[in-house]
Design brief:
The chain is an alpha+beta fold and 102 residues long. 30% of the residues lie in helices and 28% in strands. It has one domain: Alpha-Beta Plaits, CATH 3.30.70. It has a 4-stranded antiparallel β-sheet with strand order 2-3-1-4.
Length: 102
């Protein structure tokens, strides 16, 4: 199983519309990825490692696919549409990590 994590770092002046993300962007991705997407999980940062500290990330999404190739095959044809939607909910430049789930 492959996990694609998209992380949105917290920074001064950053904006993130969680409602849009949850009700528009993620459902669009689920529709476009189709059955290749096995599962999607959204994290909303609520705190850091110490009490009262801010989380290092505003949000993250974890997308599960059978393989790296399955992700690229699902993402490639829709990359422009998916990436073009990002400015509608955030001004943060997301970080991407692809991991093998053990």
């Amino acid at each position: 199983m492959t996990k694609v994590s998209i992380l949105y770092p917290r920074a001064e002046g950053s904006t993130f519309d969680m409602d849009y993300y949850l009700t528009k962007h993620i459902p669009m991705c689920e529709r476009l990825f189709g059955p290749a997407l096995r599962k999607a999980e959204v994290d909303e940062g609520v705190g850091g490692g110490l009490p009262g500290s801010a989380s290092p990330f505003v949000a993250a999404v974890h997308l599960y696919f059978d393989s790296v190739d399955a992700f690229y095959a699902a993402f490639g044809p829709h990359a422009a549409e998916i990436l073009g939607d990002v400015p509608k909910y955030t001004n943060i430049k997301p970080l991407t990590q692809i991991s093998k789930v053990r």
